[in-house]
Amino acid sequence: MKLLIFDLDFTLVNTTICQDYLKTRAGREAIVEKLDSGEVVTELYFADTVEYVNSLVERFNSGESDTLPIVLSDSPQLYCEKVLEKQGFKIQPDFIYGNAHKPCTDWEALIEDVKRYELVEKNVVSDFLVVGDSPRDIFFGHESESPSVWAKWGYNADDHMFPFHTCKPTRTATTLDELKGYVEEFIEGGEEAFDYEKPNFQEDWDIQTIDLENYQVHEVEAIGHAREYVPEFHEFDNPNYTANFFEVNWMLKPAKDVPESDLWKKVPQRFYKQGGGFAEAKHLIQKAGGYKFFFKRWLEEQGVTGKVLLVPVPSSVPAECNKTHTVKLIATWWEQWLNKEEDINFKLIHEHLLIERFQPKMPTRAQKGKRCIEDQLKTMGLFRGVLGHLPDDISAVVFLDDVTTSGQSINAMATIFRELEVVPEHIPLYGYVWFKTHHPEPDFDFDKLIELADNVAADN
Fold first, then answer.
1. Is the CB of residue 412 less than 8 Å from the CB of residue 373?
2. Residue 387 three-state SS
3. What is the per-residue pLDDT across 328-372, written as a single tens digit (0 to 9) for each?
4. Start-end of H helices in 255-307
5. Gene3D superfamilies annotated for this entry (predicted)?
């Protein structure tokens, strides 16, 4: 059996009108109702998309083909089902997979789920073809060592930092008719028809890694932060925890999916509220302007002077997967702004991306169990062109990130710098983040606690 894996948003259906709802839990619940009632209506890119996909389903159900069409999306499950239902797609909900977290989808779990339905006599899934509009779809294909088709119609090149071809789709379709041709190739010849070979992005991008069989873990001198991020903010009566939570989840983390030009121009980013209606997130560029003073003060507290190399920590996925490299943009702003200040005794140097992720990894916040620095080190490395080309008079290095929990990503950066001797050993390495994850103890009413202790003592 073969799997034909379609993305949903901007591949099968133009869901632009839905995107602001998908940013919050309240919005994800509301959009399903609004789609069902017809208040929100999605659009097709091609008039015969539904008819064509349904014909593929029918061909599989009748035994004419051994290729099962499924939908795999990062969007919520119920939303995916409703969008497809309202447009008339006949894909069963069992074969609609939401919340996929591409490109780090659990591939084995997906295959086992499909196999449990025993759709064919020989219950083996042998070939795969991924169809999608985004680099995350293409990298998902690479992670599963499968060919992919870039559905170009849902992609806006102006919204992205890098040209799409750098993520190496196997085929490109600019129309539905072109896609039909590739799908027929797959149905007839499987993966062999595409001559697919998994790219080696580490070699292609000329990235040097440390020797994972022989290395020493290095740590930074200190990790500074501007604010504390408390995921359990609702358990505390603390307005700062609440404000910081929404700043992380409404402004900072979503910025990677916003075109960089929009962040420069302060284009409003809307989020659906619990009580209905939309609110606007704070502007990243304004917050960066305020937090630069926290960073300046922290550097002064560390006694850092001279030329300071500011190095962005890479995202958990290759930079091509995001519209904006948020931390790199912040580093750019801080370099421009702080170097104009008259009362500083340091100068920031930002050389853009020195270390990059060449293979996707599960985001640290999504991992369960103990975090291991090797998970970081085996998926990222240093661009070889960096060695020997940094200024000779650097006095310190600061690795910049948005949020940290364990500090492993920053210490992984330090390990790469030390093991590859990027800078001399006497140059100190630091880390700085906008938010440090904090898990405070629940608030106690100490008067009641003392009263309870007195009562227990009296009883005893």
1. yes
2. coil
3. 999 999 999 999 999 999 999 998 889 999 999 987 655 555 668
4. 260-265, 284-301
5. HAD superfamily/HAD-like
